[in-house]
Amino acid sequence: MDPEYEERQRQYSLNPFTYVLQFLALYGWYVIGGAAALLCAVQALRPRYRRWLEAREDAEYHKNPDKALARMEAIQRAREKQQELLLAASQRAAEQQREREERKKQENLERLQKYGAAAGGHKLGTPDDDYLPLSGGASTSSYRPPKRSACKGGGCGR
Q1: C-alpha distances out from residue 136 to 3, 129, 130, 143, 147, Å
Q2: Which of 10, 68, 138, 144 is an S-S bond match for 61, by CB 3.0 to 4.6 Å?
């Protein structure tokens, strides 16, 4: 045989990447099938495993009531801590809301002092008011909609 060919074959056979590719070429479908079977088995056994762990934990607490009592107290402390945090956050939010309202009120007062009564906008119905938008005065436009045609759909000219 050719010595160069044998050298190339030896180099390819020592390459781990080549080993992996050869293995996948020969057994790839088996690997995929095994992975799918393993996935199905894990999904089927997971609920049973959790029930077993819960039963084991419950049995441990039944054997040692002090441990169960300590666990219940720890849960109660955690609930109280969460309630305190929620109450503090609620109080902070209420305080910030009051501050925002006070700031807005102060800005409105400053605007009123700076611009006078006109800063609030125009109020209708005051005794000295000549502006009545629904009265049809001369300052309003005199738009009238066009008359409706006797021919519906515009087909009179046929």
Answers
A1: 110, 15, 12, 11, 20
A2: 68
CA atoms within 13 A on the CB side of 151: 6
Question: Residue 97: which domain range?
Answer: 75-116
pLDDT single digits (tens) 2-30: 788 777 777 666 777 878 888 889 999 99
Q: Are residues 52 and 8 in the same domain?
A: yes
Asked if residue 21 is part of any domain, the answer here is yes
Residue 124 in any domain: the answer is: no
Could you read off the pLDDT of 77-93 as tens digits, one per residue? 999 999 999 999 999 99
Question: pTM of this prediction?
Answer: 0.38
